[in-house]
Specification:
It is built from three helices and three strands, in the order ααβββα. By secondary structure, it is an alpha+beta fold.
């Protein structure tokens, strides 16, 4: 998890939300930041790709011997150029996709926050050039 996401997650989970005033942010930025905090409070995040492994077990009387392979949901991530995968336990199979969606939503909101900051920089730089 990128540092900024962990930092924001840590601050919201332990109830130490930023006490600093957000008046220096635009209305859009405040809205995006509020959505990020709300998503962080909902639970875990997971940056991963998901896929399903289909394999055979080798037992002669199993359904997989006739062509209907066993399906196991997997998630994978890349660390230092190497792909690492894990099977998703049965008890987490309904939760893991939500973790991944939550991460993607937060990543999208952070991108929007960055775009707003770029707009502000461009606007402020135009002001200084005209002065």
């Amino acid at each position: 998890m990128p540092f900024i996401l962990w930092y924001l997650y840590d601050k919201t989970v332990w109830g130490r939300l930023f006490m600093r005033s957000r008046t220096h942010l635009s209305e859009k930025q405040r809205r995006y930041l509020s959505k990020v905090f709300a998503l962080l409070r909902q639970g875990p995040l997971l940056k991963a790709a998901s896929y399903v492994l289909r394999n055979t077990c080798g037992k002669p009387n199993c359904k997989c011997a006739t062509g209907q392979k066993h399906e196991t949901p997997y998630v994978a991530r890349t660390v230092d150029g190497k792909r690492h995968g894990r099977a998703v336990p049965k008890e987490l199979r309904d939760q893991v996709p939500r973790w991944m969606e939550r991460y993607q939503e937060i990543e999208s909101l952070l991108e929007k926050l960055s775009e707003e900051s770029w707009r502000r920089l461009e606007k402020d730089s135009r002001k200084t050039k005209s002065q």
